[in-house]
Amino acid sequence: MLSNSSLFESAKIDIIKRYADQGSTVQVESFFPYGTTDKIDTNNKKEMVNLATMQLDFIIQDLKEKGYFYYLSPSYLYIKSTYQSGKIVIIGHSGGGVSGFRASEKLNNDDKILVHEMVQVGSPRVESTNRHVINQTTFLSAYNDPISILGIWTEGYEPLPEKSFTVFLEQLANGAAAHTSYFSNKPWAIAPSISNLSVTLDKIWENIK
Amino acid sequence: MVVTVNSPTPVTLTYNRDVFDVERSPNEAVKRVTLLPEESIVFKNLTDRSVILKNNVSDGSRYSYTSYNADGSIYTESQNAISAKPIPERGKIVIYNSSNVPLTFFSYFNFVAIDNSINYVDFGLAITLPDEEPSNIFNDYARRYEDGRVYVKIPTFGLDNLEDLIEKEDYFRLENEIWYNAVALKEKRDIGIKIHDDFIQLTPLNQNAIDAANDRGAVERNYSKLTANNPDYTIYFL
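Predict the joint structure of the above. Result:
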C-alpha cells in the first residue's frame, strides 16, 4: 500500500547481482497491482486517504480465499502472459504479497505453472489451503510492522508458512510508516555498513537462493 | 525442545525448573546425513504435515532435489538448490549432491526417515542439434524436426543403462552426448513423456524412478515453455 515505484530499485539491482554471482541469469519485472503514489501529491492527505482506502478495499477482498480477486487483472494475467521459461520468484511488499500469493495459487491451479519462491514482505496474512504455495512462501515481517499481523493465514491445522521470519529493522518512523521501511537503503546510525534494505535482502536471499 | 550437543566439550543449559520438565531423550534432536559429491539420499516425511529439510550448504555449493507428494506425484524440483526445502506430508525428497564438497542435510529426528537403500540419481535435460535444421525449437530441452521426430538429450550421469532400454534406431550419439527419440521413449518404454505444442513433459529417467513410475502409473515432470531468451529465474516485484 502507498508504495512508490522507486521502492524496489535498489532491491532489484541487489537481487540480480546475487543471482549473477551464482551464475544464474535473471529477468526482472516489477509492477504494482494496487497502484502507486507516483502521480499523487503525497502531501495531499485527501488524495492519500482516497488511494489508501481503495487499495485497502481491494486487498481485503484478496485476503479471502473464496470470492472475487482483484489480482486477476494486474498480477496473475501479467505473469501468465509474460512468463516464458525458467523459475518464477515473486517478491511482494504489503498488498503485493497478497496479490502475488493469489497469482501463485492460480498459476499453480489453472495453468500448472509452479512459482518457485514466493516472498511476502510486510504483507497481511493470506487465507489459503494451497499447500504447495504455502510451502514455497517465505513470510517476512518487521517486529513493529502493524500490517503483517492483519488477516489470518488459513482455517484449520496448517496455520502459517513454515518459513516465517521476523526481521529487526532500524525504526525510521512509527506506526504505519514503519511498514514502508523494509527497502530503505539509509545506513543504520549504529552500524553504517547495514541498512534496512540489506537486512531485508539478506533474509530474502537466504530463502530464495 | 530436544537438544543435542555436537561439540566435543560439554554445554550447560540453564532453565527455570518451575516452567520446564527435563528428561533424557533417547534420540538426537535431528537426523542428519552427509553426502559426498555425486551421492544421493532419500528423506521420507513420516508426518501429516510438511517438514523442512535443512542443510549446511554454503556459497558455491549446490544440490539437486526432487520432492514427491504422498501419492508419488512430483511436488517440486531444482537442479541448483541451496536453501532449505519442505518435504510434503507423507512424501519424500530425493537429494543429489551436485557440488564438489560434502554436504550435510538434516531434519527433525522423529519426523523423518532416511532411506539410503536405493541409488536414486537426479537428472537434467539439455539439447544439441543434429545436422539437419529443426522445424520447432522448443527450448534447451527438446527440438522437433520436419518429420515429427522429437529428440531430447539427457546428461549421461546415472543413465548408462538407458541405452539398454531402447532400440538402437531410437537414439544416436553426437560427440559425448546421447540423443533419444522422445516418441520412442514414450511408446516403447512407457516412461511418461508427453509432447505438447510448445512444451514437453517427461518422467524421471533413471531405472528406479522408471520402475516406480510404472508401478503407480505416470509420473510427469513438467518442463517450462521454451524460448530463445531463457533466463534461469524470472523475478516479479509486486
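Chain A has six helices and five strands.
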